[in-house]
Amino acid sequence: MIDREQVLHVARLARLNLTGEEVEQFSRSLGSILEYFEQIRHAPTEGVDATNVMARRHDALRNDIPVPSLKRDEILQNGPQIRENHFAVPKVIDG
Amino acid sequence: MPFPFSTIDEGVQQIRSGATTCRATVEQSIETINAGDGLIHAFISVDAGRAIERAAELDALSQAEKARMPLLGMPVAVKDNICTRGQRTTCASKMLEHFVPPYDATVVESLHNAGAVIVGKTNMDEFAMGSSNETSYFGGTRNPRDVTRTPGGSSGGSAAAVAAGFVAAALGSDTGGSIRQPCGHCGVVGLTPTYGMVSRYGLVAFASSLDQIGPIVSNVRDAGRMLSVISGADARDATCAGKPFTATDDIYKNDIAGLRIGLPREYFGGGLSDEVRRPIEKLTERLRDRGAVLLEVSLPTLRYAIAAYYIMCTAEASSNLARYDGVRYGFRSPQRSLPELYRETRRQGFGAEVKRRIMLGTYVLSHGYYDAYYLKAAKVRTLIRNDFNDAFGSCDLIMSPVAPTCAFKIGEKSDDPLQMYLTDIYTVSASLAGIPGLSVPCGAAGVLPVGVQFMAPQWREDVLLKAGYAVECLGGG
What we know:
The complex is a heterodimer of chains A (95) and B (477).
Chain A: H1 4-13, H2 20-37, H3 72-76, E1 82-83, E2 86-87
Antiparallel strand pairs in A: 1-2
Helix pairs in contact in A: 1-2
Chain B: H1 8-17, H2 22-40, E1 43-46, H3 48-59, H4 63-67, E2 75-79, H5 106-113, E3 117-122, H6 156-163, E4 169-174, H7 180-186, E5 189-192, E6 212-217, H8 220-230, E7 260-264, H9 274-289, E8 293-297, H10 305-320, H11 338-349, H12 352-365, H13 371-391, E9 397-401, H14 417-422, H15 428-433, E10 437-445, E11 448-455, H16 461-474
């Protein structure tokens, strides 16, 4: 189990609203999964480097040559709300 | 397969020789889908008009142009997390229900250039998070071998589409087994290439250090042909190694004399069902009869693989899925403030399993827990790579089950996420090590297929296909 407060804290970090029912469910299901995760504490990793990425390429740079990019209208067509060629969102500054 | 050909090579030859046309081949595929997919639900969308139009264009090409196309007229399905220009790409999520990509994934361009015709986009677990296709927003897929069971996941729609004979081939994506496991459950062939062999440009990201695109097909030769089409350099994916795969005739000689096959002792202990164990043990005997050298190897870090995998993949997912905020694309829940718009959009747009993984990933990356979970898992990942390197010192490839059981019943595990995660035990290690894995049918328990998995060192897909072809020649147990 992880407690209700922890669930709500993580949900705030993840920018995720949860219903009361979801808070209860997550407190149970996340608890048992995290308990399972705990077992890696016993893995003998002293002096072992981390592997975060599989293919670290040092030559993955390209020449800076302009090429056609996506068209503005094609990008905007997926926008949930468009105003004058911009993505519209609720006002973020008062006044 | 309802097609009048058993391999892609044969199908392409028939079209080139004039015995049939691209259009007739594609129309046959669409008719089969129309007749059968109401029950199976392998597809999220089918674009028959565009597919037939494309097939007609291919028929109009010159012989010289057709001769350069290794997938000429082949009806192909693409998992719905791979972007197709002008064709809806949903990731089986409400969040992307109406998303129409303005560009093609590199693999889709490659399919087009090779003469393939994309007939539709296949069903999957939402954002590829699941092992049964049951987390799809659009409803799950049924296993064509037994419609009361799941096809596995997350590329369950692609595996089912090939198993049902709807298409000649499909693309899936694999993060911890999402190509290999559904192929095992549906009785088809699936190949997860070495990380970096196939461009991920246009694949909607789940866990970027693990995701790979690969072919799902009905036989081993077709896997080689598909891989040679989709592999190779791509400036748009910095992790793409630029090592194209070329299939050689040597692979398909059905000669495995002297091939050293390692059996990890940790993989054949408890937790493996008899229905899977029996065909695999029988297979080891038959491979030995064919001259292969079977030997025991050890992968001691296996016991930590699932924990390490789910820590890393949920951490990466929580970061990758931060982009779904209701601003630039996808679902939006209109709200009075921007933060509330983000939070409500994400609450309503994501399904339960996706939220669970975002929560887990955010937790393991959060202040005070990073070292104990993510960093520790990244170190375990190094140990797993070392295990494989040690094992490959004494063998050419490693053989294991694909999954602990045959395809399970719809609903059987969907209420217990941890039980669902544990079914990935045989596939996550190769993903963490970035090595290739091949799933090939090797027998059955009643009507339910059993798959065997081969794993090889990085860039040794040739050895995988060689072994897979030999299994195929033995004829399904």
